[in-house]
Amino acid sequence: MSMFTAVEMAPRDPILGLNEQYAADGNPKKVNLGVGVYYDDNGKLPLLKCVQAAEEDMMKAPSARGYLPIDGIAAYDNAVKGLVFGADSEPVQSGRVATIQAIGGTGGLKVGADFLKKLTPAAKVLISDPSWENHRALFTNAGFTVESYPYYDAAKRGIDFEGMLAALKAAPAGTIVVLHACCHNPTGYDITPAQWDQVIAAVKAGGLTPFLDMAYQGFGHGIQEDGAVIGKFVEAGLTFFVSTSFSKSFSLYGERVGALSVLCESKEEAARVLSQLKIAIRTNYSNPPIHGGAVVAAVLNDPARRAVWEAELAEMRVRIKAMRQKLVDGLKAAGVKQDMGFITSQIGMFSYSGLTKDQMVRLREEFGVYGTDTGRMCVAALNSKNIDYVCESIAKVL
Ligand code: PMP
């Protein structure tokens, strides 16, 4: 009898579980489309040139590792503000954005959730149906009741926008609404700019608290284009939260580089909010690690290096789009009769393929092609070598 006797085994993380199954699969043709990671055309995780160059410079002038300030590297936080809001934007110029360096986008969400729990303890959280798995768990763990608003419409192969809007309009004032700023995970479907206007009007009229999760800025249409939704919220005169992740856009998954920005009404208010965010950080992990933040700051704050990053990010974005087209063409060539053109109207890393759980299981067991049971496939893991095999395999289970 130990104090842990009653501890139950937690269910396996569905995606990490898939990885383990993939690793154990002896099929030489196996393809992993399960995880949300970008691989290059050789199936390799890229080390961006801008990152390598910044690291080489850092190694030439090695420095001791003191503690960072609780909110992280100032030059990093400023670069994040510029990226998210625009360096010359009114919110940044007037100093009413509170930004902290976070441990990945997940850390940004968690610090925001902890701060919100203290500020509005009775609020409910609404996430999209479906959403990134961790949204529900993270806000639930922070003490919130989490519910969802309609998002994906399987029959329509698109978004149930009327349902989404109706749910937002029906939500009580103060409800925290988690919105994917771009490249919706897991579906790949984003709402249009005109639909964003309607969402913003509903959020404003209903007194809701928007929490924008921007884990893929630059993976959709471009850095500015993907960030444009933030500008819309600013224009509407709202205060809101934005979490940022550089895991994908810098291919720095394991360095855990992210941020949380809170747009406040004034500079003075932002200072008070920042002081509270720091308490959330201090009581969770004290202060962030140096390396990833230093690399991202060194790239974003150096115009030449930043240009290299923007080009490398564009290359990833363009390759994903090309793979979407190849998938549509390849499925047709493999004899699939139904129109799979919806795959090219999706954006970002993922595609909700419309395949059923049974079809996904067959893909895995008979062909070694791994996606989630929901039919989600990571398009960013397709390449010129595996695409034909994936198309033929899908054609066989459809
Ligand atoms: N939000 C969404 C929608 C994501 O897809 C991810 C990463 N899969 C994150 C947040 C978390 O990003 P990070 O790995 O930087 O914590």
From TrEMBL:
User: Which GO molecular function annotation, any one, does this entry have?
Assistant: transaminase activity
Under Pfam families, the record lists: Aminotran_1_2
Annotated Aminotransferase class I/classII large domain residues: 29-394
Q: Which domain of life is it from?
A: Bacteria
Its Enzyme Commission number(s) read: 2.6.1.-
Q: Which residues form a coiled coil?
A: none
Q: Which SUPFAM superfamilies does this entry report, sorted A to Z?
A: PLP-dependent transferases (SSF53383)
Which keywords does this chain's UniProt record carry? Aminotransferase, Pyridoxal phosphate, Transferase
Cofactor(s) listed: pyridoxal 5'-phosphate
Subunit structure of this chain's protein: Homodimer.
Q: Which protein family is it in?
A: Belongs to the class-I pyridoxal-phosphate-dependent aminotransferase family.
Q: What is this protein called?
A: Aminotransferase
Q: Please spell out the taxonomic lineage of the organism that makes this protein.
A: Bacteria, Pseudomonadati, Pseudomonadota, Betaproteobacteria, Burkholderiales
